[in-house]
Automatic annotation (TrEMBL):
Gene3D superfamilies: Glutaredoxin. This is Protein disulfide-isomerase. Residues 1-21 form the signal peptide. Participates in the folding of proteins containing disulfide bonds, may be involved in glycosylation, prolyl hydroxylation and triglyceride transfer. It catalyses: Catalyzes the rearrangement of -S-S- bonds in proteins. Belongs to the protein disulfide isomerase family. The keyword Repeat applies. Its EC number is 5.3.4.1. It is found in: Endoplasmic reticulum lumen.
Length: 504
C-alpha cells in the first residue's frame, strides 16, 4: 500500500524557470557532472540534495537548506551542504548512481562518497542543522551525565542506549555496527552508568540495550547482541502496539512506518464516538498485545481518515466496525460489522490459518447481454476458467484513456464472434476486483489475456485493432471437434483443385 510522501516524482518532468535571485554569497555548493566526483571524494562527510527546479517541495526547502548550510559552515570542522540539479540531462547519471527516485532526495555521503545514506531528518533550518550535526558525529553518543541523558532521551522520541561495563568487546562492537546501520532513523547512545538513565532498573552494569519510547511500556531491554537480532529488536520495539491512524502530526511517523513495514497489517476501523466504541477498542488492544510477537502490526483508525484503505479492500462505511488484515503475502482478510466479543476469536482464527482470504469483487451484474461480457472476481472462475471456452479478457481501469479507446474495437471483435459460441470476449475492472496475480501479471491498463478452451494462457501484446486481435484469437484458440472437421474439409478442397489442375 503506497502512502503519500512529500516528494515530487521524476515523471512530472516538465520544467519551470528557477527563481532563486539571491545575489548574496551562497553557502550551498553547486555540483554537477563535471566536478561532483572530484569534490565529493575530498570530503569524509558531505550532504547532497538532488533537486529539480520545477519541484515545489524543493523550492520550499531551498531557503531552509541555505540557512542550515550557513550555520554548518562555521561548525568545527565545517560541514558542507551541496546540491545537484538532477533534472539536467548531464547530471542524471549521478542521480541514478545514488538511486534518486523523486525530488528532493537528500543523501549523506561518507568516506569520499563510498558510503551513502538517505537523509531522514526535518526540512527546516534548525532541524537540518541538528540532524546533520548528529549524523556527522560518531554513530553512538557517549552519555556521561544525567543532563546528557535527559537531553538525549527526551519525552517524545525513540532513543536507544547501550549500557556497557567497558566500551570494548564483541557486544559493544556489534552495538556500534547496528548504530551505524540505523543511525539515520534512530538516536543511539552508550554509557557506563545505568544510574544516569531516566527509566528502568538502574543497578545494571550491562551489557544490555535499553530502548526508550514515548508510548506503550516506555522502555524495553534486550541482551541479544547478535547484529541481526539487535536490529530486529530496534525495528520491532519502536512501533507502537497500536498505531493510531488520525491527523495528529505526532502520529505521522508511526503511521508511515506501519504502512511501509513488510509485516502483516491488521487495521481496525471504528466510529470512535459510537456506543460501545470503548469496549471494541480495549478488546482490539488485547489482541494486539497478544499477537504482536507473531509478526502482526496493529492499527486503529477512523473510517474517514482511512478511506483509501477501505477502498483498497472494497469495503463500505456500513460494514464498520471492521477489521481488515493485509497479510505479508498481500492476501486480504476482513471481518465486517464486528462486535466486541468477536474480536479475539477472529484474530485467533486468523493466526491459526482458519480464515479464508477475502476477494474484492464487484456485485455480479444482473444482466450481461452486451457483446463484451462483464467479469467480476466472483464470476472469473465460471466465465474464464471453467467455461470450456476460448476467452479474451481485458483488465481495465475506468479512468484509463487507452481502455476507452480500445472499448469500441473490442465491441467489434465481440460482435464478429457473436455467432461463435466457443469464443467469449470479456472485461474485468481491475480497480474494483482482485486480480489473481499468480495467473495474470497486470502492471498497466489495458492488459489483455487469452485463455484457450484447453487452458493455455497467453498475453496479447499486438496492435489494438480488430483485425490483429481476431488474427491472434484464431491462431491461439482451440477448435471444437466440429470445427476441426470443417477445417479439414476446407483444406482438402484446394488440394483436390490442385489435383484437378494436374489432371487437366
Ligand atoms: C561545478 O561546476 C559548475 C558548472 O561547471 C559550477 O557552476 C559550480 O560552481 C562548480 N562547483 C564547484 C564547487 O566548483
Ligand atoms: C458515529 O457515531 C455517532 C454516535 O452514535 C453518530 O452520531 C455519528 O453519526 C457516527 N458517525 C459516522 C460517520 O457514522
Amino acid at each position: 500500500m503506497a502512502i503519500k510522501l512529500s516528494i515530487c516524482f521524476l515523471f512530472f518532468a516538465f520544467s519551470l524557470t528557477q527563481i532563486f535571485a539571491d545575489e548574496s554569497k551562497e553557502f550551498v555548493l553547486t555540483l554537477d557532472h563535471s566536478n561532483f566526483t572530484d569534490i565529493v571524494s575530498k570530503h569524509d562527510f558531505i550532504v547532497v540534495e538532488f533537486y529539480a527546479p520545477w519541484c515545489g517541495h524543493c523550492q520550499k526547502l531551498a531557503p531552509e537548506y541555505e540557512k542550515a548550510a550557513s550555520v554548518l559552515s562555521s561548525h568545527d570542522p565545517p560541514i558542507v551542504l551541496a546540491k545537484v540539479d538532477a533534472n539536467e540531462a548531464v547530471n542524471k547519471e549521478i542521480a541514478a548512481q545514488f538511486g534518486v527516485q523523486g525530488f528532493p532526495t537528500i543523501k549523506i555521503l561518507r568516506n569520499g562518497g563510498k558510503d551513502s545514506q538517505v537523509y531522514k531528518g526535518p526540512r527546516e533550518a534548525d532541524g537540518i542543522v541538528d540532524y546533520v550535526k548528529r549524523q556527522s558525529g560518531p554513530p553512538s553518543a557517549e552519555i556521561k551525565s544525567a543532563a546528557d541523558a535527559s537531553a538525549f532521551i527526551g519525552e517524545s522520541k525513540v532513543a536507544i542506549v547501550g549500557v556497557f561495563p567497558e566500551f570494548a568487546g564483541d557486544e559493544f562492537e556489534n552495538y556500534i555496527a547496528v548504530a551505524k546501520k540505523l543511525r539515520s532513523e534512530y538516536d543511539f547512545g552508550h554509557t557506563l552508568d545505568a544510574k544516569l538513565l531516566p527509566r528502568g532498573e538502574s543497578s545494571l552494569s550491562g551489557p544490555i540495550v535499553r530502548l526508550f519510547k514515548p508510548f506503550d511500556e516506555l522502555f524495553v531491554d534486550t541482551e541479544d547482541f547478535n547484529v541481526d537480532g539487535l536490529q530486529k529488536f530496534v525495528e520491532d520495539s519502536s512501533i507502537p502496539v497500536l498505531t493510531v491512524l488520525d491527523t495528529d502530526p505526532k502520529n505521522q511517523a508511526y503511521i508511515e512506518k506501519f504502512f511501509t513495514s513488510p509485516r502483516t497489517k491488521a487495521m481496525f476501523f471504528i466510529n470512535f464516538t459510537a456506543e460501545g466504541a470503548e469496549s471494541l477498542q480495549s478488546k482490539y488492544r488485547e489482541g494486539a498485545e497478544l499477537y504482536k510477537k507473531d509478526g502482526i502490526s496493529f492499527l486503529i483508525g477512523d473510517p474517514d481518515v482511512g478511506k483509501s484503505v477501505l477502498e483498497y479492500f472494497g469495503v463500505n462505511e456500513d460494514q464498520v466496525p471492521v477489521i481488515l488484515i493485509l497479510r505479508d503475502d498481500n492476501k486480504k482478510f476482513i471481518k465486517p460489522n464486528l462486535e466486541a466479543e468477536h474480536i479475539s476469536t477472529f484474530l485467533k482464527d486468523f493466526k491459526d490459518g482458519k480464515v479464508s482470504p477475502h476477494l474484492k469483487s464487484e456485485p455480479i451484474p444482473e444482466s450481461n447481454n452486451e457483446p463484451v461480457k462483464i467479469v467480476v472476481r466472483e464470476t472469473l472462475q465460471d466465465i474464464v476458467f471453467n467455461s470450456g471456452k476460448n476467452v479474451l479478457l481485458e483488465f481495465y481501469a475506468p479512468w484509463c484513456g487507452h481502455c476507452k479507446k480500445l472499448a469500441p474495437i473490442l465491441d467489434e471483435v465481440a460482435i464478429s464472434y457473436q455467432s461463435d459460441a466457443d469464443v467469449v470476449i470479456a472485461k474485468l475492472d481491475a480497480t474494483a476486483n482482485d486480480v489473481p496475480t499468480e495467473t495474470f501479471d497486470v502492471q498497466g491498463f489495458p492488459t489483455l489475456y487469452f485463455r484457450s478452451s484447453s487452458g493455455k494462457i497467453s498475453q496479447y501484446d499486438g496492435d489494438r485493432t480488430k483485425e490483429a486481435i481476431i488474427e491472434f484469437i484464431e491462431k491461439n484458440r482451440d477448435k471444437s471437434a466440429q470445427q476441426e472437421q470443417a477445417k479439414e474439409k476446407a483444406e482438402e478442397k484446394p488440394a483436390q483443385k490442385e489435383q484437378e489442375k494436374d489432371e487437366l
